[in-house]
Design a protein that fits this description.
mainly beta; Immunoglobulin-like; 36 strands; 48% strand; 4 domains; Ig_sub; five-stranded antiparallel beta sheet; 2 helices
């Protein structure tokens, strides 16, 4: 989360104190003072998770970034700014929201002259809204609904309803986050009547958490039947929202490709090693940005069918950072770091030899036509301060990073020294260039 805050009129806050806190001034969320971040006295719950974004500091723009948002981060924040003679503060609210797992629907059996259907989901914040709907979108009355809060502050919910027998019916279970105005949905079809024990009865199950795949590599989307039974003679259909336009179709004992979505031609495979045990995962090759989204795993035999919904997240690790020394600026040496090919938008950090974060002079991230992000960042190194620097670019979804380092020697060679170097001084000149060159340790 980025909490905005700025000064009016516009002026530099580089030499001011910027303090973010809750109600206690002394126990701060983040403190910038004397031209650098201060961590002594920081609230323990925020250690290693906060950053004052300094790209607009000279214009009085002092937003706070908080990483890895938790339920406990929700609440009121104060942005306090002070120079030698005056101070001001403003108050803002942070609301936290969590999207839980796709609803898992199960057919439990006969009850009260009908068929009991149960819907479960977990990982929501705040407490979600739960609805049953029929094929026309009309709300259906629930038999029961239970919502409980776990130790991590997230909510899980379970709801049930009774479907009258002999009423062929498509049902959907919707769970909605009212803060984000987003929902997750799963559907089930109740046939004429609940099959007797002599018929096939099963639930289709997928993962409760999203599947994460790396660009250019393969992804396997898990799906299986419960209880365990053979799916060799069933229909297995993977699709997005359109049933007829499928991602992959297995039917009549073999893969079917007529009607497959063109974007998936030659890139999908139903893994059949566990088919006789009801294990029907889908492999997608050469993952692309466009593959990200919701997938439905639909399985049907002669008398019954079920489906489940899962999410595929796509991530890209870009190139190793390229560091270059650009020249003199503002009484120091300007060092530049570039990288491309990231998804989603990466986090960029400069660090010193001890792993401490260094304030950047500027940072620019842009999205290319292929949907991938490239980033450029720069900082100023004070001259005559021998320094090891590293540029770290991190994919927060994969929790992986790439890093390159550079050693800045005493000072950047001036143009006059370079131009006056003679053959006799060539060895010394080359040594100086090596000291200021980039060492890539990615």
């Amino acid at each position: 989360a980025v909490l905005p805050c700025h000064l009016s009129p516009r002026m530099s806050a580089a030499n001011m104190e910027v303090r973010w806190f809750h109600s206690e001034f002394a126990f701060f969320v983040h403190l910038y003072r004397d031209g650098k971040d201060q961590y002594d006295g920081q609230m323990p719950g925020y250690r290693g998770r906060t950053e004052l974004l300094k790209a607009g500091l000279t214009d009085g723009i002092v937003p706070l970034r908080i990483l890895n948002i938790r339920c406990a981060d929700e609440g009121q924040y104060l942005c306090f700014v002070q120079d030698d003679t005056v101070y001001e503060e403003t108050v803002l609210e942070l609301w936290v929201a969590g999207l839980g797992s796709a609803p898992l629907i199960s057919v439990e059996g006969h009850q009260d002259g009908g068929i009991q259907v149960v819907c479960q989901s977990a990982g929501w914040y705040p407490e979600p809204e739960v609805l049953w709907k029929d094929l026309s979108g009309r709300h259906l009355p629930t038999l029961s609904e239970t919502t409980s809060q776990r130790d991590n502050g997230l909510f899980e919910t379970e709801t049930a309803l009774i479907v009258i027998e002999h009423s062929n019916q498509n049902l959907s279970c919707f769970i909605r986050n009212t803060v984000l105005n987003q929902e997750k949905e799963s559907a089930v079809y109740i046939a004429d009547q609940l099959p007797s024990k002599s018929h096939t009865e099963f639930t289709v199950i997928g993962p409760s958490d999203p599947v994460t795949a790396i660009l250019g590599q393969e992804a396997v989307l898990p799906c299986h039947l419960s209880p365990r039974m053979s799916a060799a003679n069933m229909e297995v259909r993977w699709f997005h929202s359109e049933f007829a336009s499928f991602v992959h179709l297995y039917r009549d004992g073999k893969d079917q490709y007529d009607g497959q979505m063109p974007d998936y031609w030659g890139r999908t495979e139903l893994l059949k090693a566990g088919l006789t045990d009801g294990i029907v995962p889908l492999r997608i090759l050469g993952i692309r940005r466009a593959d990200e989204g919701r997938y439905l795993c639909f399985v049907q035999d002669d008398t019954f069918y079920g489906e489940t919904v899962l999410e595929l997240w796509v991530a890209g690790l870009g190139s190793a950072p390229l560091i270059s020394v650009e020249g003199h600026q503002d009484g120091g040496i300007r060092v530049f770091c570039q990288s491309a090919g990231w998804y989603p938008e990466p986090e960029v950090l400069w660090k010193d030899l001890n792993g401490r974060h260094l304030p950047s002079l500027s940072e620019t991230t842009s999205e290319r036509e292929n949907g991938l992000f490239e980033t450029e960042t720069a900082l100023i190194v004070i001259e005559h301060s021998n320094q090891n620097l590293s540029c770290c670019i991190r994919n927060t979804l994969l929790n992986q990073e790439k890093e390159s380092a550079v050693y800045i020697a005493g000072q950047l060679p001036s143009k006059s020294h370079t131009e006056l170097s003679t053959t006799r001084n060539e060895t010394k000149h080359k040594k100086k260039r090596i000291e200021t060159s980039v060492l890539d340790i990615s």
